[in-house]
Amino acid sequence: MFKHIESIIYYLDFSISTFQLTMRLKKYFKNTFILHFTFSLFVLPTSSWSQQTSFKIDEERIELQLKRLSLFGMNDKGGNDRVAFSDYDLEARAYLTAYLTELGLDVTVDAAGNLLARKAGKNPDLKPIAFGSHIDAVPNGGHYDGDVGVIGAIEVLETLIENKIETAHPLELIIFSNEEGAIFGSRAIAGKIDLETLEGKTASGYTNGEGILRLGGNPEKVMEVKRSQDELHAFLELHIEQGNILHKNKIDIGVVEGIVGLKWWDVEITGKTNHAGTTPMNDRQDAMLAAAQFVLAVNEIVTEMEGAQVGTVGRINAFPGAPNVIPGKVVASLELRDLDAKKITLLFNQISKKAIAIGEETNTEFTFIPLDATAAPALTDTRIQEIIRQNAAQLGYTHKTMPSGAGHDAQDMAVITPTGMIFVPSVNGISHAPDEYSSPEAIAKGVNVLLLSILSLDTTDFK
So what's the pLDDT on residue 375? Predict the structure, then answer.
């Protein structure tokens, strides 16, 4: 085979794509093993991983792994009941632990119940590159939210192991605990939980404290899970979009510029309870009428402002709640989300000002009560965004820079380390439902970008 070395070197122009190089080399080698061996000699030792790697992930293996994982918690409607801390959650984690151990990885559980799998790097003094997601679901949820990021991360590790690729940095897969119920595991790593968080009840019926104990964690030492900004090199999360922008526009990869912040309020509207049959229409203090106008006002104010912000009134309760009684009190919810915290404040100020006007018109009173469900916007690292864009382009994938309208573990990881996030399309934008679906091809593209981005991060100096 070596009689062709001189000709191979002639063709090693690294400005051309891997695909073009492959086609040229095929003129010399029909044997796939020899072709890949030649790549390992001449292509892989170069400094730019994303430009030169000849290997890709195994799409069929990812699809099979997702199907296996879906069995832990699948209900008779096809939905996913693998809520955090449930028996299904424990069984799925036991399966993944065995699989990761079989790959030769160092598998542990931290005090917050996060499942960690570590692959050593060439230089133990370097900080690890972390990546991962979660496997817990909302009740009767889907089988892709979180799962794609975890199985994709496992596939990256397995691909590197199979190809005997050793990174300089250690690699650390994190399967976070209770993302859907409280974004618990990543918040613990970011140092954002307290004793009250441990006492919070989850969909499984267990408190967070009880739940992490079931996972092998330790509530008494959970505060020690917190990591400083000096302990991780970077963090990446692969996830389904959970919206319909990528799928509708036939775009392969979403480059997440940030995860939106959100604020919640209870909105109490007070009028006067009275008989529905004997009180004239022009002599009423109808809290429900004021609430109806308020809902329309929220929609109008949020849509009139430029940007991707969203506002939602998702819950309304009328009191006393009888058909023949004018509601004297209504309690509604208000949620605002955007990448810019100042815009959320601006929207709220406009909405509350309009609420005062509605109150004067309907002879009712509005009171806004902030709820403890606030999350600050988290911008991803612009350098990692560019790495993701370059690797998507290198692979020939279309991509779009976009915000995430949903919360993720990456939102908390961004507080302590340079963080990036990769989206793949969700068919028809369906999520948190049994019909949630992303195609094997779409997922494979995301995992390929994740793989190359991790290799790129291995040679990136954030200083």
Answer: 76
